[in-house]
Amino acid sequence: MGPVPDFLHTALEPGRWPTFVLITARVGGLMLTAPGWSGTTLPRLVRTALTVVISVLLLPLAPPAALSGEVLDLPLPFLSELAIGIVIGLAGAVIMQSLSIAGEVISMQMGLSIAPALAPLPELQVSGIAPLSTLLGVTLYLSLGGHLMLLHGLADSLRVLPPGGTVAFSGGQPLVVALAGQMFACAVSAAAPVMVALLVTNVAIAILGRAVPQLNAMMVSFPLSVGVGLFMFAVSLPIVASVVTNWVLRMPAGVEDLLVHLQP
Fold it and tell me: What span, in angstroms and rounded, lies between the C-alpha atoms of 245 and 235?
């Protein structure tokens, strides 16, 4: 047999096992929320194996950590590392969630939210625009290497926030507000072209209904809204793709800002 690689030799040292456990918790938190790693298409056994492998590879980057000798103090560092991983994963999850919200808003404005009630079969799953916009975001996210950007940010977090060290969770309140604001800002940006077009369409139908009382505005507005909404959704896809690309490329800076908020 050949010589043992350096990272395996480091991982097999008994003094490094506490650090390995804490890094595994941080990587596990990332796997719970990060797009691409937390998807249901990735089997749990594969996700668990990736967590262990990534933790072993990241172990040489982390300074040694020591666990408390008190049994009751052991869960706190573990939960802290899990929370750090979850926060890093949320930097990418807000982008995907914003596209899902944008799709739901577009479907509601177009009138497609009534589709489940009109489904021919009760067990038939009828969806609106949200799955299409989410698939667009996931495709761009993976093609630009967003899942790898989050892993790089997690590796940098081992230097900024060493495993087992102090974490300033008091900065979590502005952190949550910033993530929520970013999510809704992204959703509005993605849904704005279709919403503006539908608003103009509804105003035009209202004016036409007042000018021609014989016109059944309700019967005309529904197919017209669906047609205009689908047309504008198709036309705005390049714009939405450009916006999502900018969000993904700015994600490393967002992860760095999140780590700054958690520094003591």
Answer: 17
Buried b (16+ CB within 10 A) or exposed e, 115-148: eeeeeeeeeeeeebbbebbbebbbebbeebebbe
Side chain identity at residue 58, one-letter code: L
In a domain, 214, yes or no: yes
Q: Considering the domain boundaries, does residue 1 fall inside one?
A: no
Per the structure, the count of domains in the chain is: 1
23-60 tens-digit pLDDT: 888 898 888 888 888 777 778 888 888 888 888 888 88
Contact between residue 26 and residue 82 where contact means Cβ atoms under 8 Å apart = yes
Where does residue 150 rank: exposed (0-12), middle (13-18), buried (19+ CB within 10 A)? buried
- In angstroms, the CA 124 to CA 129 distance is 16
In a domain, 150, yes or no: yes
**89-130 confidence digits (pLDDT tens):** 888 888 888 888 888 888 888 877 665 555 555 554 556 677
Running DSSP on this structure, what letter comes out for residue 63? Answer: P
116 belongs to a structural domain: yes
Closest Cα to residue 127, out of 143, 103, 157? Answer: 103
Which residues form the domain of 54?
6-262
Asked whether the beta carbons of 53 and 10 are under 8 A apart, the reply is no
Residue bearing tokens 């608003």 = 199
